[in-house]
Specification:
12% strand; 7 strands; 2 domains; binds NADP nicotinamide-adenine-dinucleotide phosphate; 12 helices; two-stranded parallel ribbon
């Protein structure tokens, strides 16, 4: 994720010299420096010295020791952006002495600069810092803000985990296409391109997705038969329950990984 954000910033014209990447792995850092001309450092505390913004992009399981190491070296007014799943603002505030903070839930399409991120700011983050966070995450896709931290778990249920739902849908469509006689490659090409096309159409259309669906569902037509079958089998309930389960797990994770 960190590599994607750095790549997105560089391709949006941010100078590599303004970015410092840290990692325990010198090899990883050498690759980043070669690809993006960023500064690198294996010492997190040293890298913090002049930072205006610190992006925390380590695994949730090691966030606590990493934060506790950073706490004493963090410049007082530096904005902290955490992209870790399931680590609450309260935990980050406890570990880092309540800095200006933005919690972000990104998703994997950030890897191809088509991400969707939900952002939540604590009360110490200034408007200018929120705009900075917005600009950084915009480098890898769409950004939306939520007013309460609890809604970050709903962002996880929609977009954080969402790519996997669409992959599952594509998997199922590919398998069904093969069952009907298509070659796997043909079914995969058609399913993936259809998902991409539908998403682009939805994004650029001036009507909502329900209307787009109605427009391709002519009475007594083929699509109507498929949609009727989905509805009769409880498709909407299935999606609702899956997303409830996702949100519940996000809440549990925050408990498990918290302060
Ligand atoms: N991937 C996703 O779909 C996704 C979606 C939403 C949110 N997130 C969040 O994004 C964060 C990163 O996920 P990821 O998939 O990018 O994980 P990742 O590939 O494991 O990246 C974490 C990086 O942190 C480095 N690291 C480990 N210890 C460090 C330390 N003490 N100081 C500095 N860097 C250190 C790791 O280096 P080594 O490899 O050498 O250990 C690795 O390069 C997670 O908190 C995750 O919850 C990920």
């Amino acid at each position: 994720m960190a590599r994607s954000i750095i790549g997105g910033l560089i391709s949006n014209g941010h100078p590599g010299k303004m970015i410092t990447a840290t990692s325990p792995s010198q090899e990883e850092l050498d690759k980043l420096a070669e690809d993006y001309s960023v500064n690198t450092n294996t010492d997190n505390k040293q890298a913090l010295a002049d930072a205006d913004v610190v992006v925390l992009a380590v695994k949730p399981q090691i966030m606590k020791p990493v934060c506790c190491e950073l706490a004493e070296a963090l410049p007082e007014q530096a904005l902290v952006i955490s992209i870790a799943a399931g680590i609450s603002a309260a935990s980050l505030e406890a570990w880092l002495n309540t800095p200006p903070l933005v919690r972000c839930m990104p998703n994997t399409p950030a890897l191809v600069l088509e991400g969707a991120s939900g952002l939540y700011a604590n009360s110490k983050a200034s408007e200018e810092q929120k705009q900075l966070a917005h600009a950084i995450l915009t480098a890898v896709g769409e950004v939306t803000w939520v007013d309460t931290e609890a809604l970050i778990d709903s962002v996880t249920a929609v977009s954080g985990s969402g790519p996997a739902y669409f992959f599952l849908m594509m998997e199922a469509m590919i398998e069904a296409g093969i069952k009907q006689g298509l070659e796997r490659e043909t079914a995969a090409t058609l399913a993936i391109q259809t998902a991409l096309g539908a998403a682009k159409l939805a994004k650029h259309s001036d009507v909502d997705v329900a209307e787009l669906r109605r427009r391709v569902t002519s009475p007594k037509g083929t699509t109507e038969q498929a949609i009727n079958s989905f509805e009769a089998n409880g498709f909407r309930d299935m999606v609702d329950q899956a997303m409830q389960a996702c949100r519940t797990r996000a809440e549990e994770l925050a408990e498990e990984l918290g302060a």
